[in-house]
């Protein structure tokens, strides 16, 4: 019974590691980490627009780690455009921080795959101690979840403290200046948070695998030997 219980936990941990890997890959390739509304400040100042007219100058923007798009509203109707973060726009952003976010997620992908491999190994074989046992799986999941957490924290810092949305909105805008009215994190950002949560679940599963169940021993009946048994 304990062996089946541990194999089941390692199988669940394998599935969770695979789901975490998929979530990170999907999040990195999706262009909607942030969505927001941008105001064309230059257009508003030119026509001295009042509150009812501001709607004509409020556009939209969305972006991820590699690409995005925006709708410019400068009083003459909306103009849609798409952009890529690499190779030119990243030079106008906080380049080091943006590259660190991508690097953290790539490292998290690697550790998620390592965790997946060792979970499968422990599920089908008697686990080695140290790196290949439950303690090792905990190590890989802790590292993977930690790097995802670093990536998420760094992205939040870039948005809140380094004005990432405003920099992207004003990239190559020589005439108009845009101001960010509101911005919020989209589902793809929370997918990364869910990936870190999946690794936390794996840590809980590994802790449960250390539970030792009492072994069920069958009671042996004592055999009494009589004199008649010896004679015959």
TrEMBL record:
One GO cellular component this record assigns the protein to is:
membrane
Subcellular compartments: Membrane
Q: Which UniProt keywords apply?
A: Membrane, Transmembrane, Transmembrane helix
Q: How does it sit in the membrane?
A: Multi-pass membrane protein
Offer one Pfam family short name for this entry: Clarin-2
GO process annotations (BP): sensory perception of sound
Q: What is its main location?
A: membrane
**Entries under InterPro entries matching the protein:** Clarin
- Residue stretches spanning the membrane: 9-29, 97-124, 136-159, 188-207
Return the similarity comment.
Belongs to the clarin family.
The protein in question is named Clarin-2
């Amino acid at each position: 019974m304990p062996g089946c219980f541990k194999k089941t936990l390692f199988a669940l941990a394998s599935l969770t590691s695979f789901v975490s890997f998929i979530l990170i890959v999907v999040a990195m390739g999706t262009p909607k980490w942030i969505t927001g509304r941008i105001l064309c400040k230059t257009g508003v100042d030119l026509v001295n627009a009042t509150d009812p007219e501001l709607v004509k100058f409020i556009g939209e923007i969305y972006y991820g780690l590699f690409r995005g798009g925006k709708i410019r509203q400068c009083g003459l109707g909306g103009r849609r455009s798409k952009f890529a973060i690499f190779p030119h726009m990243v030079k106008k952003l906080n380049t080091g921080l943006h590259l660190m976010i991508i690097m953290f997620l790539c490292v998290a992908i690697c550790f998620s795959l390592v965790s997946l491999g060792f979970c499968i190994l422990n599920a089908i074989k008697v686990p080695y101690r140290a790196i290949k046992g439950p303690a090792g799986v905990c190590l890989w999941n802790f590292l993977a979840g930690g790097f995802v957490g670093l990536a998420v924290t760094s992205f939040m810092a870039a948005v809140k403290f380094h004005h990432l949305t405003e920099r992207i909105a004003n990239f190559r805008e020589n005439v108009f200046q845009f101001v960010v009215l509101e911005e919020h994190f989209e589902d793809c950002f929370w997918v990364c948070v869910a990936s870190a949560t999946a690794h936390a679940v794996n840590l809980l599963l590994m802790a449960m695998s250390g539970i030792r169940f009492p072994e069920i021993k069958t009671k042996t009946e004592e055999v009494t030997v009589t004199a008649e048994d010896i004679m015959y």
